[in-house]
Specification:
The chain has strands at 4-6, 21-23, 46-47, 63-65, 71-74, 95-98, 104-108, 116-121, 127-135, 138-145, 151-155, 171-176, 182-186, 197-201, 207-211, 224-229, 235-239, 244-248, 254-258, 266-269, 274-279, 298-303, 309-314, 328-333, 339-343, 347-351. Strand 4 and strand 5 form a beta hairpin. With 354 residues, the protein is mainly β. It has one domain (23-351): Neuraminidase, CATH 2.120.10.30.
């Protein structure tokens, strides 16, 4: 555990202060119940993925495992950032497929996205990408592909953000139910009027229902950042700015909220209902964006069935955290239980289980 007294970085406006802030010693358990003292059963993360033609990773929050065991990842076209125009004028493919060793297999989707946020691979092997960037005529959409990159379905209006039933406002991720129903996390905006809801469509893209609004109560959201289904068909929602996971049935009925997994940037639930939660933003200091005092960043691992957290893979960045984001924002696993973490800080890392 570390005690520190530091001035906040001037590189992040939301973290500025006129005088140094006094940070307490990192507690064993945060005020919201996120444990910092759990064991890790993983080796340190190692940079992963052999990008083609000498490319380097840009910012990313999206990584997913396909039914065939391959790993699909998003790259914001070698650029740093999120929700802007990272891929708007790039000739690079932002959607990439690898085997578990990191060998590059294929890529596609150049020119289709403005700032891809997260990637989902459904049980049939189709690839879904949410784009929370916007330029005229592009962005603010969800696009479904086959594994060869053919566009099969689009949701939302290209380049149009709004609160309607056929528009999104910074969509972040897709989850697909066993019957093919499509659930979209919408959206990433911080403004009080920004969308903060779940949108549900049938397998053909027909709108079915929506729920949620800005707020802190059950069924309310503030930055709906990530989605995942468990084996019971319950929808887990990473309600990031509220520092919690909310759990719903597929009709939007609230079941529970969990705060013991930290601040959820990414969720992954494997076939055994092991829940992996990537916390890339928890920070102490002044209240505001990212404020989740006493929670160490990293990946918390536990049960989607009862919410018990069993393991913790800590961020190697020293506490307290000066940057707005470190550690993975997106998370998935392979059949051996190894973890793959997609980082805003322009890398993808593999954590081998020991």
């Amino acid at each position: 555990m570390i005690a520190a007294s530091v001035a906040l970085s001037t590189g992040h406006a939301q973290e500025r202060a006129s005088a140094p802030l006094k940070f307490p010693e990192l507690p064993l358990v945060s005020p919201l119940g996120a444990r910092n003292d759990l064991p890790s059963n993983y080796n340190a993360g190692v940079s992963w993925g052999q990008l083609p033609n000498g490319r380097k990773w840009g910012s990313t929050a999206g990584i997913a495992t396909a039914p065939d065991g391959t790993i699909w990842a998003l790259d914001r076209c070698g650029a740093s950032g999120a929700g802007g125009t990272t891929c708007a004028s790039s000739p690079l493919d932002p959607v990439l497929q690898f085997d578990t060793s990191g060998k590059f297999l294929r890529s596609f989707a150049a020119g289709l996205f403005v700032s891809p946020h997260k990637i989902t691979v459904d049980r049939d092997g189709f690839i879904w990408v949410a784009d929370n960037g916007r330029v005229e005529g592009r962005g603010q959409q969800v696009i479904k592909f086959n594994k060869d990159g053919k566009v099969l379905l689009t949701l939302g209006k290209a380049g149009v953000a709004g609160p309607g039933l056929d528009t999104f406002d910074q969509p972040t991720e897709v989850a697909v139910a066993p019957n093919g129903d499509i659930f979209v996390a919408d959206g990433h905006g911080n403004a009080p009027t920004a969308n903060a809801r779940i949108m549900k469509f049938d397998k053909n893209g027909k709108f079915l229902k929506t729920w949620g609004k800005k707020g802190t109560g059950p069924g309310e959201f503030d930055c709906v950042h990530t989605l995942a289904f468990d084996s019971q068909g319950r929808l887990f929602v990473g309600d990031r700015q509220n520092n919690r996971i909310q759990i719903f049935d597929q009709e939007g009925k609230f079941i529970a909220e969990w705060k013991q997994f930290g601040r959820p940037s990414g969720l992954h639930i494997d076939r055994n209902d092991v829940l992996y939660v990537a916390d890339s933003e928890s920070r102490d200091g002044a209240e505001g964006y990212g404020y989740n005092p006493g929670a160490r960043r990293g990946i918390r691992i536990g049960s989607a069935r009862d919410g018990k957290v069993q393991y913790f893979v800590p961020d190697v960045t020293p506490y307290p955290y000066m940057a707005a984001s470190t550690s993975p924002e997106g998370v998935t696993t392979d059949a051996q239980g190894n973890i793959y973490g997609a980082e805003f800080t322009m890398d993808v890392k593999k954590y081998v289980k020991n």
